[in-house]
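Homework help board

Subject: predicted structure for assignment chain

Our instructor gave us this sequence and asked us to write out the predicted structure in token form, then describe one feature. I got the tokens but I'm not sure how to describe them. Can anyone check?
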Amino acid sequence: MLVKFEIYNDGEYWCARGIGVDIFTQG
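My token output:
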């Protein structure tokens, strides 16, 4: 099963957005 993510840096946070899910990590 292949899952595609969009990864981008929003100033202070990195965000990896997948299928119906938003994952935020600090750093």
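Reply (TA_rk): Your tokens look well-formed. For the description, you could write something like this. Residues 1-27 form one domain. That's the kind of observation they're looking for.
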